[in-house]
Amino acid sequence: MKAAAGYTLQTDPVSAAGELQTKFQGFDVKAIIYFASSIYDPYLLSRAMFEKFPEAPTFGCTTAGEIVSGRILKHSISAMALSADIVEDMKIGVLKGIKGGADLESVFSSFENYFGLSMEEMDHTQYLGLILIDGLQGVEETVMEKIGDLTNVFFIGGSAGDDLKFDRTFVFADGEAYSDAAVLALMKLKCGYEIVKTQSFAILDKQLTVTKADTRNRKVIEFNHKPAAAAYAEALGEPVENIEQRFARNPVGLIIDGDPFVRSPRVVYEDGSIGFYCNILEGMELKILESTDIVRDMGNILSTKKGTGEISGVINFHCILRTLELQQKHQTEEYGLLFSDIPTAGFSTYGEQYIGHVNQTSTMLLFK
Amino acid sequence: MRGRTRKLIDEIIEKRSGGDPTLATITRTKLILKGIDPDKFDYTTVDDPAVLQKVEQIARNTGVMS
Known about the structure:
The structure holds 2 protein chains of 2 kinds. Chain A is α+β, with helices and mostly antiparallel strands.
């Protein structure tokens, strides 16, 4: 087995880390990634994980729900142990103070020194990055953009959650816990991998062009030269006062080669502007999306991928809005079961990362 | 001036991808997420100074232009 997944419902951080240690006993652990509910003391948990797995890098983040092979959980820790058959080598870096503009160069320098290769030279088929980032600082786009400017290595990941309290999220690395930070893990892989970005939406023939935006605050002031809320309402044929109820079902998407990069509306402000969960630039032409069937789409993806070869493990960065939709449609159990025969760990995120920052999406890493 | 924006976009895609089609697609996606859609420009498009400046900045940030 190349990857092993496990979970614990123990509420004490030391006991929880101990249970995970027991579950992964006998497994050749090269690295541990874990996703923990905000019920745990982050500092104690990170320390306990570090102490229980002294032979491997340990890193993770807080969540808004956890995913493990066959199950969707709450108030737990899900974890994945990666073996030397997957990870040849790994280096972890912490970007601190991301709200004020993180010093990515120094983290990348540490990667370059460690692997003896510049980030620009690294082969994207051999090297792969994971990113776990504070989900409440609103700077994912900036960090992802900077990463994308400096390297062709893919970084995939999620924004840390805090069980919908929207108070404070944490990332973990080697015994420490951080807020206002991102953990980057650069892996030299021994196996192949595939990245899946999936969202379950139909693209409607209704276009909204951003004519005025406050990008820094993730706010669209005008679509089509009209107050954003009024234009969105008009496109859907709904009174403005009802549109917040449509947000989850009808987000907007930037369509690139037929693939929507979802931008989810969050709130209507008194001035008629709309706040989003990610930034949107002036001039962008967006389409209104209509939600379809998450379980059906994920089932199709997994059966296609299984048909093309073995999947050793899946890390699933799954938007909390998808989790809420599954709950509302009573499909949570069905969704969890899709992953029952694959070692899987993941969490409900406050945002997903792949190339950029997206919403209402699952970004998934499949190890071959 | 015409077509300078498109030429610079092509240069960014070419240099960043090194001829790898996957990386060319990804670089194009990165540009669109930054608000620059390559398909909106051709070699006869009159250059908008603000857009050209933005593309030049991207070229500098990505190490394509010093």
